Amino acid sequence: MALITKIREKSGIAAAAIAISLILFLIGSDIFQGRSSLFGSNNQEVGVIAGESILLPEFQKKVEEATANYTAQTGKGPGEQESTMIRDQVWNQYILDIAYKKEFDALGLKVSSEELIDMVQGNNIHPSVRQQFTNPQTGQFDKTFVIQFLKNLKTMPAQQQQGWANFEKSIAQDRIRSKYENLIRLSTYVNTAEAQKEYQAQNSKFSARFLYVPFFSIPDSAIKVSDAQLEEYLAKHKDRFKGVNSRSIQYATFPVVPTAQDTVEFYNQIKKLAKDLAVAPNDSAFAMLNSDVRTPYLLAYSEIPEVVKSQLGTFQVGGIYGPFKNGLTYSIYKYGGVKKDSLFTVRASHILIAPANKTDSAKAQAKQRAESILTQIKGGASFETLAQLNGMDGTAQNGGDLGYFKNNGSMTKAFEKAIFGFNGAGLMPGVVETEFGYHIVKITDAKTNTAYRLAAINKTIAPSQATLDRVYTQADAFANANGTIGAFEAALKKDKNIIMMRAERLLENATSINNLSNAREIVRWAFDEGTSVGDGSKKVFEQDNQYIVAYLTGKTDKDNVKVDDYREGISNLVRAELKGEKISAKLSGIKGSLEQIAQKYGAGALVENVSDVTLSTGMLNTAGPDAVALGKIAGLKTGKRSQVFTGDNGVFIAEKTAAVAAPALADYTTYKTQIQSMGIQRASYYINEAIKDNAKIVDKRYKFY
């Protein structure tokens, strides 16, 4: 009986355990995730904005909606770069909807329904609406298009209706944001005293003599900086060194290149394709089907690769030519003869001389200068050289070369008419006038409307699967044998053929590493909570034509700034302070004129003069724009000498020899406007940064993408 009782007691516990296991099995990992879980974990949190948690399912849903819109607008799905851009747009929209909205609501700012109607179809049309409903034929905005669209909106598919709702939301947010920024901007005021100070800084001048001992006169090796000094400096200047979440890595790269056997097999493939192309009944379709890089069947002369052009004159109809090499791509061609195109192609160079303004006198001067240059070229001067010296657009550095272009409206009408009205090649006899100015033109390839039938098969040589497998096996063995940074460094010493690369201070959402363009997987590994400094990836990352084994060498924490995060920069600053103290101590014990002090000090001491220096744009010869020194000298009385003081780049003793104060003005409005406009230009940036800082944004997207 006792045994049966024990079994009954234990069976109750077992039943409870089984029940709990079943519940956990049924609900899966949801109990450990989500906005509020039983165990307080939040593994699906994409970020936090102004105290509000953004979870992965809702964030991903918005990303998918934005991706669908992108695909509908462009007709193709987004690539890696576009996907990153879409996620950034969704994230920024969250910031606007949460962080910015709290600021707007606190001030009672809003866009009324009447105001929204006015922005869409009223008297104050929003620029985005104008852009969307501009008549492509006339280039003019037509309000009737908007009204007609809105009348038909309810009959449109749900996706289009939602798209319009999102569009209206975006322009309303843009308007309310403008209101907010204008409110902040208009709250700033520049008084007369500030304007007067700016005027004096720009116009008051002084002259001076000074002794200058630059920090660089003492070798860095002569100044020892301790860790304790670095820690003390960081503690005093924490506001200057902002924390950031970053990772530093080293990585070994194992390139995958075609072997000799791969090359032989590739050439055999090209030869077979050439034979098949020769007898293909539809050569253009066959070429398209078998090309890694597709090219049109009909090509203008300008579109034919240079290496093919050089042999084009020898081509016979029906002949197979090539292979022609371009990088790792090899091309074979079947020539089908020529065809006359409706458009002409030409290649030309020009020298643009633009008038200084639109006045008749400025135009006359520009034309005269252009005609003078044309005369020089006719006399034997180099067109390309004169283009580099005189051209007033981006083609000047290339000798005026415009490349090939067609008479399809790609050039301004007057220019196109003149170029395509010219027969043959060579210098055009007169200058060509357009709305941009006056052009001296040389036709480098005569116009032609001949199109060439070229069925092209373009194949890129690539390593075989056997080669890929062999290099992967090599990289995988290396990763398993060298699981730590210490083992990696030892391997580097043993094998000098290992290719090692570094990447410093990668940010959480980085998508590339050095020349590795799609490196998100490596970045995510580096930021994974399970990856510690010194760890190797123990796995191989595939990157186009190479395999990567990575090692985490350093990390920085946004909320815990350490000396090592800024060691080099802090060391330079502390070293400069110590140099300043050493130089100042030596100078303070020397008496006499500046020249005598410099002579007694020895190597490194300079005595220099400056004249008519202003505070706003002042330069102190060797010392450059040293703000501390400029301020100290400007504050001296004329004829007085300063004590020894330390500037931005060295140590000074200065004598002010003359000063000319700017005369008082009756009206400082110009300088008020200058300061005000500078403030307005910076306001938008500072407002955005202040709102983001106040929202205490935590971005965790790097954990999921």
TrEMBL record:
UniProt KW Transmembrane keyword: yes
A GO molecular-function descriptor? isomerase activity
List membrane-spanning regions.
Answer: 12-32
Q: Keyword annotations for this protein? A: Cell inner membrane, Cell membrane, Chaperone, Isomerase, Membrane, Rotamase, Transmembrane, Transmembrane helix
State the source organism's domain of life: Bacteria
Q: What is its main location?
A: membrane
Annotated membrane topology = Single-pass type II membrane protein
Compartments annotated for it: namely: Cell inner membrane
Q: Is the keyword DNA-binding in the record? A: no
Q: Report domain PpiC positions.
A: 346-445
PANTHER family given in the database record? PEPTIDYL-PROLYL CIS-TRANS ISOMERASE D, PERIPLASMIC CHAPERONE PPID
Q: Write out the similarity annotation.
A: Belongs to the PpiD chaperone family.
Know the name of this protein? Answer: Periplasmic chaperone PpiD
- This protein's species is Aquirufa ecclesiirivi
